[in-house]
Amino acid sequence: MAQPFSLQPLLELMQTRTDEATRKLGQLIAAEQSAKSRLQMLEQYRDEYAQRLRDATAQGITRLALRNYQDFLSRIDDAINQQSLAVQQTERSTAAGQEHWKSENKRLKAIDTLSLRHDTRERYKEGKQDQKLQDEFSSRKYATQDPNNQD
Q: Which of 11, 89, 132, 135 is deepest in the core (most CB within 10 A)?
């Protein structure tokens, strides 16, 4: 009978950890994409608002209106800077998540390789045992046959 793989609990633990790292990496990638999308939206909005300012300036606006445009553009620039920092943070988090996933996956593959080797050894042992039984069966069958009977 085949011996069970003694590291099976470790293999299952590593599979669970790798699955968790994969799930977490997916969340980190989604957060990064979301942060980049928000940054892109802010930049696009800033461009559109700056164009409105250029159009209004070309038509002539008051100093108060000009100051309001400039103040609003300054607030958008601040938001863009904050969002850029958020994007950088999510990129760092995603990179760390990728490294963690790679590490967990590498460990899983190592234990899985040991499991596969164990299975191969066990199949080899079983094959040898089966062959030994077949040889014994054949030798008994030959030994019990009547030597005068030439079937």
A: 11
